[in-house]
């Protein structure tokens, strides 16, 4: 439920970048860098509109495709030495002049901070509201010993007494500005033309979400952190106890295509890594069954080779699953189902964790708790087994 406040998110994204060409739309974990920030704005409970301020036609096109509005920024305020406040003020003036629109709050977001989550945006806004502050911004705790250098080249301690070095836990509580999220009351920002004015509050985020992308090493670190976050999210979606795995065949074991020979025989292509994944499931003592509407003998042949049970020619998959659960005394809440098409929807909705392959049809994807990164017939089963194995601490 959205707030009654009018909250505008502005994401400055210049086209020029000396360190990394086209940095703001460079792909990170399958998505343009700016897309991570846009996604979080769209998930926010407070943000009403999301605008990308840019001088680049290419960034504007990407931002529009991702669901953000765009305000084109003049070249004279798009240089590398131009403060971000220029882009924010330009956007506000543009909206006021062309729409008569002026938000209560503006949220200034850096697209180079892709690891924040929408709760960080909402948390910073709530901090401003809770303390009746004029400005709130995201910080992370810092325990660093900072030094500087005087004109003679001698090192000098900044935030501690170098003659009585304190234990980290005894240092005064300090915070580092992340650069990720700033929230400001609009009238005050327009008056002062700077992001810090009046009463200022801080919202603390963990260090693993406070990374700022500046060079290629940062991209690599961010990629690792995003993948680790995704694994944790997937672990939480899987049943706490896994009693069984039910798999569709066409579109899960295969890429949903069929090879038809002149004599009418049919063949499909499967991924050997999925076969190894099935062996791993069996070693974990997790019951596996394939339930398919397909009547072709190829299903049974493949399942027999893998040593798993299959039920073919099924008209109603949900009825077949319920019978299998009853026959094996299994709780549906502790069962995983993997499918890809419309006749899988009821099964996906019924079990404890319904999963769809990456190339499943869109009408099915919206029901899946987990959407795998792999497509059917291209390692989807192996990907799932890896997630299960990691959850169980076996690999």
Explain what this protein looks like in three dimensions.
- This protein folds into two domains: 7-233, Spore Coat Polysaccharide Biosynthesis Protein SpsA, Chain A (Alpha-Beta Complex), CATH 3.90.550; 239-391, 3-Layer(aba) Sandwich (Rossmann fold), CATH 3.40.50.1000.
- The strands form five sheets. Strands 5-4-1-6-10-7-11 form a seven-stranded mixed sheet, with helices on both faces. A six-stranded parallel sheet has the order 16-15-12-17-18-19, sandwiched between helices. Strands 2-3 form a two-stranded antiparallel sheet.
- It has helices at residues 33-43, 57-65, 84-99, 118-130, 186-192, 216-237, 272-283, 297-306, 317-327, 345-350, 362-365, 380-391; strands at 7-12, 27-28, 31-32, 49-54, 69-72, 105-109, 135-142, 147-149, 155-157, 174-185, 200-204, 244-247, 259-260, 266-267, 288-291, 309-311, 335-339, 353-356, 370-371.
- The chain has 395 residues and is an alpha/beta fold.
- The two termini are 41 Å apart.
- Helix 7 (272-283) runs parallel beside helix 12 (380-391).
How far do the termini sit from each other? 41 Å
- What CATH architecture of the largest domain do you see? Alpha-Beta Complex
Strand composition percent: 15-25%
Instruction: Detail the poorly predicted runs.
Output: none
Count the domains. Answer: 2
The Cα radius of gyration reads 27 Å
Overall geometry? elongated
- Find the count of extended strands (DSSP E, 2+ residues): 19
Helix content: 25-40%
Strand order of the largest sheet: 5-4-1-6-10-7-11
CATH fold node name of the largest domain: Spore Coat Polysaccharide Biosynthesis Protein SpsA, Chain A
Helix-and-strand structural type: alpha/beta
Output the number of helix runs.
12
